[in-house]
Amino acid sequence: MRLYTSESKSDLSDLEIVERFKVSEDLSLTVLLFNRYVHLVFGLCLKYLKNHEDSNDAVMEVFEKLPQSLLDHEIKNFSSWLYVTAKNHCLMKLRTQKKHSTGEKDIGKYNMDLSYSMHHNDAEDKELSLRTLEKALPQLPLEQNRCIELFYLKEKCYKEIVSITGYDLKQIKSYIQNGKRNLKIILEKES
Q1: In sequence order, what are the residues at sequence separation of 6 or more whose Cβ sits closer than 8 angstroms to the Cβ of residue 130?
Q2: pLDDT beneath 70, residues of the chain
């Protein structure tokens, strides 16, 4: 096994680091990713949470989950994947805060990156969009509904969805992709 100095590690691309981490589970590799992206993730969190302390906490939470997330997900573009992961984490924090402040019942986690439902600035608009999304989900074909629910709402990784549903990995990815597209169509029709 070849050892890499910190100098040679820092020259690796994001995807090379991810691939090497998946093989070695060397946490120093995730530190490299943290150092490269901490300021960007903090800026994103600050945009959504509008509070330095909450943003710092969110950054640490995102990066604490990073090692397991890297093992669980197939990543083609690390910076885009990290952006979506951090954004969804912030949206879930906002939703949890709102749920606790209003005492409303938990109606599920919808952390999908659907531009229709997630690009509103107002918290009430976001909540309305999430309720609309909840009504649209049952309109999907059963396979798409099930895969989207497991992946986004229950935050299961692909491997877990394979074992739960019996679908193969390609089917699951297809159901999720088509389900997201169909949800967007349904939501646009209802607006």
Answers
A1: 95, 107, 110, 117
A2: 1-8, 99-133, 190-191
pLDDT given at position 115: 39
The CATH number of 13-106, from 1.10.150.130, 1.10.1740.10, 3.40.50.720, 1.10.10.10, is: 1.10.1740.10
What is the rounded CA–CA span in Å between residue 112 and residue 84? Answer: 9
Q: Does domain 108-191 have CATH number 1.10.10.10?
A: yes
What is the distance between the alpha carbons of residues 181 and 50, in angstroms, rounded to a whole number? 30
Please report the pLDDT score of residue 103 as a whole number.
45
Residue of 130, 116, 93, 113 lying closest to 185 (CA atoms) = 116
H or E element at residue 167: none
Q: Which two tokens stand for residue 183?
A: 């949800």
pTM over 0.70: no
